[in-house]
Amino acid sequence: MSSSPLAQLQALAPPSSWRALFGWRRVRTVAIICALFVLLFSFGWNASMWRLVARVYGVGLALLLVFGLFELWPRRLPQWLARWALQVAAVGLTVPLAFFVAFWLSTASGAPPFWKTSRLESYMTFTFLGMLVAPWTALAALLRHREAKVEKLSIDFELERSELARQALDARMRLLTAQAQPHFLFNTLANVQALVEAGSPRAPQLLQSLTDYLRAAVPRLDGSANTLGQELELVRAYLELMQMRMPDRLAFALHIGAGVHLLRCPPMTLLTLVENAVQHGIDPSEEGGRIDVHAERLDGGRCRLRVVDTGLGLQATGGGLGTGLAALRERLLWAYGGSASLELREVAPHGVEVTIEFSEPKP
Prior knowledge:
alpha+beta, five-stranded mixed beta sheet, 10 helices
């Protein structure tokens, strides 16, 4: 696994590619500074202009080479020596040497050395201005390179932190879903056990329906997101199963709007609402009741789910959410933050309406 951006930020190792050392920005900067030098010395220049251009640009290329060389070499430095200081010092020391070589090479064959003629004054002028400009240019380039690298690593660090936050959120969602699965399965099996113990002739048929339902439902419970169409299939199968258990006390209907089947939602969202209505509203009531499931698409890409039952109501059940709804509220909070809502309200003359609104999560 590659090192984290934080470790890279602390290390800030020099680049390892010569191509990066002689990039277009560096060459362009050296060329501009050399052009300014040529323009400055062109006033009053009596010799051939190409000698001035060759001398200045040759020295500029040599300084760029030294700057890049000490950016790569040596690979390790003593703790007391900073690489930037080595580069700036190397550039400063190279200026007089580079101009010395340039003046020496431009001396005509058989002519006296330039330091014994009036050309020494020109050499001193070139050297003075070069040492005045080159180290500060090198220092500015180092600062700009460090700032760019820190900015890039900061962006990489922010991206990595966002990815870790997303992974933590996904793990938390899977944990909450895993907690909801046994709660749902245990409740369903308890219903079947009660029917078997009562000796109902519908017990074998109910067991077969439960087997078919679990065969379709269990593989979908581990997904990070289901489509609303899959949720509605599970809801219909669950309600049919519960209706077989209490045929005289449970009626239901599904009201599905256009375009909602392909919307994505966290697993067991709608199923939790329906199960809560059965367990806390219809089943404890002697008269039973009816459950209406509504799913509709709203403007702005939002979806509204409503489960309305005519069971005992909030007051009879103590006004609590139940384990399923409490876990669902936390899952919605983790999945959508403040953009999702879960509301309960009493229905006259008795019953509960639970409404969820959310925006479709990105796949």
